[in-house]
Amino acid sequence: MLPLTLLKTAQSHPMLVELKNGETYNGHLVSCDSWMNINLRDVICTSKDGDRFWRMPECYVRGSTIKYLRIPDEVIDMVKDDAQAKARMRSEMNKGRVGAGSQNQNVRGQLRPRYKNTPQNGLKSGSRGPINRPLSQAGVNKTRK
Amino acid sequence: MDDLNPLAGTAHLLEEVDKKLMVLLRDGRTLIGYLRSVDQFANLVLHRTIERIHVGNDYGDIPRGVFIIRGENVVLLGEIDREKESKLPLKEISVDEILDAQRREQEQRQEKHRLISKALKERGLAVNTDIINEDFC
């Protein structure tokens, strides 16, 4: 998975950003883009020498000023699980096409991704019921002419 | 012979994926971790990273987790030779000790710089610290 894609999946996770001038910003990632510009919330900024602190509800950091970002281990585990689950799915599906249809029964249990508590499209993880899914995902019949 | 493989003799960062690497940053930091992914800017994702601080013949490791390093801040990186790693001629000490040692070395360096600029000033030359590049090896 590309570094910027990993950053995108780390949205809403806490992280540490060190800038080229040595300042560190600790906060939760709100959003990022292809230039590595990031938006953080609940930020604590520490000066280079570690002697001065600022606290701010949100901040925007231009990508070109970033030295590196440190993200929690759980993000990469989440990505690894996701990649493994997809690879398993793909190989099981290929097997199922050649062999009997019964093999697909085993696959269903593994189809669900193993990571928990990742909000999708701004929804909280607990509210994945039919009412809260966007219509496009619910498979609503589109009107045909 | 070379038209068989025009890329012969070149290196790709993709070949270094999942290897244990040492990465040197422009600010002088040394990070050791497993490379997980790369992109066209040579941005790196390092997993199970430790920051190794060297002072003289001593070194100390600080575990740091996952790094996404912006490519322009990297000086070089290299694969860690496992055999050589187990036979290091250096001594590992605790994190607190190495940080103390690093601080003392930094103070010595600043003191030396102060004396040199003072001597130069007495001779009519000025050292402007603002223009000194922070990048060092």
TrEMBL record, chain A:
GO terms for molecular function: RNA binding. PROSITE patterns: SM. Residues 134-145 have a biased composition (Polar residues). GO terms for cellular component: Lsm2-8 complex; spliceosomal complex. InterPro entries: Lsm4, LSm4/Sm_D1/D3, LSM_dom_sf, Sm, Sm_dom_euk/arc. It holds the Pfam family LSM. Gene3D superfamilies: 2.30.30.100. Residues 2-75 form the Sm domain. GO terms for biological process: mRNA splicing, via spliceosome; nuclear-transcribed mRNA catabolic process. SUPFAM superfamilies: Sm-like ribonucleoproteins. Residues 86-145 are annotated as: Disordered. Residues 86-95 have a biased composition (Basic and acidic residues). It is found in: Nucleus. Keywords: mRNA processing, mRNA splicing, Nucleus, Ribonucleoprotein, RNA-binding, Spliceosome. It comes from the Eukaryota. Binds specifically to the 3'-terminal U-tract of U6 snRNA. PANTHER family: SMALL NUCLEAR RIBONUCLEOPROTEIN SM (PTHR23338). LSm subunits form a heteromer with a doughnut shape. Belongs to the snRNP Sm proteins family. This is U6 snRNA-associated Sm-like protein LSm4. It comes from Ceratitis capitata (Mediterranean fruit fly). The lineage of its organism: Eukaryota, Metazoa, Ecdysozoa, Arthropoda, Hexapoda.
Automatic annotation (TrEMBL), chain B:
CDD domains: LSm1. One of its GO terms (cellular component) is P-body. InterPro entries: Lsm1, LSM_dom_sf, PTHR15588, Sm, Sm_dom_euk/arc. Its main location: cytoplasm. Pfam families: LSM. GO terms for biological process: deadenylation-dependent decapping of nuclear-transcribed mRNA; mRNA processing; RNA splicing. It is found in: Cytoplasm; Cytoplasm, P-body. Keywords: Cytoplasm, mRNA processing, mRNA splicing, Phosphoprotein, Ribonucleoprotein, RNA-binding. GO terms for molecular function: mRNA binding. PROSITE patterns: SM. Residues 8-83 form the Sm domain. Probably involved with other LSm subunits in the general process of degradation of mRNAs. Belongs to the snRNP Sm proteins family. Interacts with SLBP; interaction with SLBP occurs when histone mRNA is being rapidly degraded during the S phase. LSm subunits form a heteromer with a donut shape. This is U6 snRNA-associated Sm-like protein LSm1. It comes from Ceratitis capitata.
